[in-house]
Design brief:
mainly beta, Gyrase A, domain 2, 4-stranded mixed beta sheet, about 15% helix
Length: about 120
């Protein structure tokens, strides 16, 4: 899972394996260790009708309806976005399948989706 946060926007990218786990109803998680605390991020398939996101005690929890995850996993769709109204402004989530880069990278990209822009 890759996570990017910019002000009130969170972008999550997941590999094929992670997407399969989520569509099977299994949560995925990530952690980043800092000197004074650890930040945890959990994506949890839920039976809720709408997406829920919260931040409590160093943990970002994102509950996504299982049906939404299954639909995404079984389609050519790249992802979805969801906004949550706040007292001032909104919190926006962009959830996407992670594609292989078109240029060479040092990181292992074997578990990522084939890039649809790749020339044949």
């Amino acid at each position: 899972m890759k996570i990017r946060i910019l002000e009130n926007s969170i972008r999550i990218r997941v590999s094929m394996t992670e997407m399969a786990q989520l569509s099977d109803g299994k949560e995925i998680d990530s952690k980043t260790v800092f000197p004074s605390a650890t930040l945890f991020v959990k994506i949890i398939p839920s039976n809720f009708e709408t997406l829920v996101i919260d931040f409590i005690k160093h943990e970002i929890s994102i509950l996504i309806p299982l049906t939404t995850l299954q639909k995404l996993n079984n389609s050519d769709e790249v992802g979805f976005s969801h906004g949550i109204a706040l007292a001032k402004g909104s919190l926006n989530l962009l959830f996407e399948k992670d594609f292989q880069c078109l240029s060479e990278r040092a990181e292992d990209q074997s578990g990522l989706y084939k890039n649809p822009r790749e020339s044949h």
